[in-house]
Amino acid sequence: MKSRALIVGVSGVVGSALATKLLAEGWQVYGLSRGNTPVPEGCTALTADLTSQQAVKNALQGIEVDKVFFSVWARQENEQENIRVNGAMVRHVLEALGSSLKGGHVALVTGLKHYLGPFDAYGKGEVPLTPFREEQGRQPVDNFYYAQEDEVFAAAEKYHFSWSVHRPHTIIGYAVGNAMNMGQTLAVYATLCKQTGQPFVFPGSSAQWHGVTDMTDARLLASQLLWAATSKQAADQDFNVVNGDVFRWKWMWGEIAHYFGVEPVPFSGEAQPLEGRMQDAAAQWQTIAEQFSLKQADVNRLASWWHTDADLGRPMEVFTDVSKSRKAGFMDYQCTRDAFIELFDKLKAEKMIP
Fold this sequence. Notes:
Residues 65-354 form the PRISE-like Rossmann-fold domain. Keywords: Oxidoreductase. GO terms for molecular function: oxidoreductase activity. The chain is an alpha/beta fold. Helix content is 41%, strand content 12%. It has 13 helices and 11 strands. Helix 1 packs across helix 8 (218-230), helix 3 runs parallel beside helix 5 and helix 6 (182-196) packs across helix 10. It is globular, with a radius of gyration of 20 Å.
């Protein structure tokens, strides 16, 4: 029998990469989302408001799967609301599937805010030493990642399935309409700079410009999710997941600038966030889209200024240790520079950027 998977958040940068991976491996794949964005070809689309228990129950009625992958969240006004809403979305799906998951596996994708704290208290507490390691555990702050984990743990005990938690750093990947997508945001920013003559200024902090960091290719994360769902060594474990190399933005900024044919501006010593400088981006992008016959004229469907500012504005060094998953058998590697270039090439091929 084919393995049957449900991907919750299938239209996002992680979900779409995972669906593509599983379909190529011959899996039967269901994708649950709000239905705002097309799902990968071959995936059975299911639509529901994940915040509604009844809507989720209705959407999953009659669906039988043995693997569930969560890569979904909905940003709220504060962390208490993030906890309430995002924890409930996980609970609604697992309760709807219930005992049919016995002997199966549930994987949850969170991220490095597990160690850094949520946006409301980003890096304000005592941040663990880098590289981050799974054994460092939770921070003493409210965090919706913890609420989502707790929902998975409780359901695993109740319905008798194995679980895994995956913590990527900033994700590079292709997805339109995704709220957390630095690669596409930087591609749009560089394109705007080239077409309008704006300087290609690094928007982040001195710590990020000079410090060591790493990133996660969505395709590599998809490979780890597949491995964890089918490996006994990964059962009931949490794993960091990054490409396997490290870099400094001081170097990478020039590489990105070179690809787009713009001049990288030397770092001024102060952060210059994108969100405060992109007020004219919507109109500018519409003009660019018309000029080059691009598929997406709404810049907000491609770029997430606030999220890129949050990542690049961190006042501390951030990178991770992936020894745990390597010791358990996951050995995949991806060059981060190549990940950026391959994404930019795909954006051009898909007529998302000129």
